[in-house]
Design brief:
CATH topology of the largest domain: Aspartate Aminotransferase, domain 2
CATH class of the largest domain: Alpha Beta
Order of helices and strands: HHHHHEHEHEHEHEHEHEHHHEEHEEH
Number of helices: 16
Strand order of the largest sheet: 1-7-6-5-4-2-3
Distance between the termini: 61 Å
Strand content: 5-15%
Bound molecules: pyridoxal-5'-phosphate
Largest sheet: 7 strands, mixed
Structural class: alpha/beta
Amino acid sequence: MSEGRSARLPFDPSPAAMREMAAAVSEYLIQRTASIASRPVDGEGGQREVARRLRAAPPEEGRDFAAVFAELGEAIEHSYEFGSPGYLAYIPGGGFFTSALGDFLAQGVNKYVGVSALAPAMVQIEENVLRWMQSLFDFPATARGILTTGGSMANFSAVATARNDRLGEDLREATYYVTDQVHACVRKSARLVGLERRAARVVLTDADWRMDASALREMVRADRAAGRRPFLVVGSAGTTNTGAIDPLPEIAAIAAEEGLWFHADAAYGGFFQLTARGRQRLAGIERADSITLDPHKGMFLPYGIGALLVRDGQALRAAHHEAAAYLQDLGEAEELPHYNEYSPELSRDARGLRVWLPLALHGVAAFREALDEKLDLTAWLDQELARDPRLELPWRPQLTVVPFRRRGGDDAANQCLLDRINAVRRIFLSSTLLAGRFTLRACIVVHRTHRDRVEEAARIIRTAAAADG
Ligand SMILES: *Cc1c(COP(=O)(O)O)cnc(C)c1O
């Protein structure tokens, strides 16, 4: 069939057409997975031009699948390869087939999980995922959780819950406590729940970018004495910049003494709890009132999946529940929660399958071992770079971020170093500012990153550092 003259594709295509399209997509994914390691980590060149070329309104009549699919392929090839073993920038979401398959299935059958009455077994599967996450942190049976689209939305619901639980409707003089290393979405969330910008109180950090707990205590007391209303402290369980873990046991103790809600933002670091080293480093997190996790980081899943766990499940519900007459037939939730009562969302995808299917097919041990490997690789890279006199590594990695700079180099020299490293196109790093200084970082969170690529990364970085002074 030539393009433009094909018969209209029915919304429910013929079995043969469905088979053909699904097979093409699946074959494409199989080939991409096999070749991702050898592709340039920054994708094919000319990305902006391709983006511009694809600018178009939808056609009045549908087009041929092959032509449309070819265009999509072009868009995909002209993008960074976030799942490449060389992608060490930001905090990547690698993504893999079994998770995508879970999504395909979930969307294909389109079951409704915003309430528990209509697809209880599907809700149970999502609840299994959440209960498993809660068990990692020894949360009680009265805890509840929600799957979100990411860490930002999980933090948003956490801040909304803390606000509702500790302040009620009166936000006057409210203050919350973070460090300058906290993820920006926490401050964004505070604004979205109606807090003034000045409600954010920035606690000092120590030499390793960890919250200074005694400074926190003093600040809370001084604020209270001045008539303010401290209600929330957010501890980072792995900051985005450097992977720093705030002193969680001390924060938990202060929060308990001072009546603050203790939220642990473990979007990046939380799943290291699966490993012995991670559990040791994250000690104290099990005392948090709420925890944010990002399976699209620490479980290597595709973007679009976060989680919030709340120790007191009723506090989560109290912050989010609104009754609606048009839902009256659904009845009260009994064994299983109506998730819409615990989250800002009503209608949404059955996103539990995206986590559950990989867990069911690969098993928990596979994730534990992969995370352990990333900790080993990070320690190796840190030591390897530290041996180079041209590089400066002032902070030992607490998780899987290795921050470094050119020794004695100014910001321009470090920008140049970054550009030179990324120009090789085998690894891709990003940068940040630490105490106002340009700093490079290598973050190892793609499941495909193994020893060979990390050794190559060390060679590329050291060669780039040797290239000029
Ligand atoms: C990534 C990250 C977030 C935001 O999560 P998204 O999934 O990107 O919305 C929040 N906190 C920390 C510590 C993060 O690393």
